[in-house]
Amino acid sequence: MKFLLGLYTWLRKEVRLPSAFSWETLIVLSLFSYYMTILATGWVRNFVVNFGWIFLILGVFWGTTASNQLRIGYKTPAQPGFPLSPWITGALVSIYIFGFVAEGESRQLSRNMLIYWPIISAIIALIPDYVGVGLKVKVPPPEKRKNQFLLVTSQILLSCWFQFHFLIQDYTAQYPSLLVDDFRKSAFVVKWEAPLSAATPRGAAILDGMGIQLRDSLDSKRWSDVERLLLPKELNKLISTNEKQVKKRLPPTLEDDLWQVSVAGGKASARGSGGYNLPLQAIWQGPRAKTETYSVTKTCQILPVDRLANAATKPLNTPQDTPSTSFSRFECQEVKGWGLDRLKKRLDSFTRT
Question: Are residues 122 and 217 in the same domain?
């Protein structure tokens, strides 16, 4: 409290206002209002905060309009140039109207602040042409209306671009696999990438999760039981169950329903040296730049391994002279396919240089 009183005394002594009717007076009233909010509570505090914002907006608009340094191309009062005051004031008005939003544990400016800022600024820029002395409405001359029309439409277009930016952000947050596609021929999307960063399709994460799930289901199991699970009907059921479990464990996105996971060829294929190949394939059913099918694959092998039988592993009613029992060994390779091969080449080339 002593600090605030000392600050108030210093401001009263050092700050000299040119007159009672000036933009500096409005700025000081704004600072005084925010000082009073520290002492006020409840609805009184909100009332004083609103007045503080109003004083600040009017003071900034007045001060920036009177400053020739904040004009582009200023030469003489007859050639005032292009003022920046409406956009400076419009930013304050947008913050006052739309404020901040909570983002996790922090607070950030609302996206509506940026979207409506150009339109609000255009309206502020038109006020001097339509409001005269004594707050009387006036009609601007015809030669000014063309420029006013271009000003308003350009700011509406800018607001639309800001809105489109946030729309693309929302799409890529819910459909991250869209970032893997090729945007080189896009007229409105530019893809920026760091040297070692690139998006990977969501299907790769799904197949990696399914590899872990299937390892728990098929690894170190009796070979006869594994072969039974690899029958087409049982295998489709196993793949469907594991797919649902993996999608539930991953961070939820709307694009999960656009990935269809299956076994390539519809069944596990026999290996020449024994065992089976299990090629898992995730096909992207969402939008794409080309007509070709986008998919990622993960090839897994199920191999029989002979182990010496013992009392714990030997099935009931098995003759005691059985020397060994076959068990399964499940292993998978890396996911390959859409976007991943190109990423691997980028990483290899970066490492070589």
Answer: no
The reply to whether 105 and 213 lie within a common domain is no
94 and 223 in one domain?
A: no
Work out the angle at residue 38's Cα, subtended by the Cα atoms of residues 36 and 41, and round it to the nearest 5 degrees.
90
119 close to 156: Cβ distance less than 8 angstroms: yes
Find the domain containing 129 and state its range. 2-179
Tokens of 320: 């005691």
222/331 same-domain check: yes
Distance CA 79, CA 347 (A): 57
Sequential pLDDT tens for the chain (353 residues): 666 667 667 666 656 666 767 888 888 888 888 888 888 888 888 898 899 999 999 999 988 888 777 777 777 666 667 788 999 999 999 999 998 776 666 778 889 999 999 999 999 999 888 887 777 888 888 888 888 999 999 999 999 999 998 998 888 888 888 888 777 777 767 666 544 445 788 999 999 999 999 999 899 999 999 999 999 899 999 999 999 999 999 988 889 999 999 998 888 988 887 889 999 999 999 888 788 888 999 999 999 988 655 555 555 555 554 556 789 999 999 999 887 866 555 545 444 44
List own/partner pairs for 239-242 with CB under 8 A and 24 or more apart. Answer: 239/210, 239/263, 239/280, 242/210, 242/213, 242/214, 242/217
Examine residue 185 and state whether it is found in any structural domain, yes or no: no
Residue 187 placed within a domain: no
Three-state DSSP class for 26? helix
Cβ–Cβ under 8 Å, residues 70 and 60: no
* DSSP code at position 268: P
Instruction: Specify whether 149 is located in the same domain as 241.
Output: no
Q: Does the model's pTM come out above 0.85?
A: no
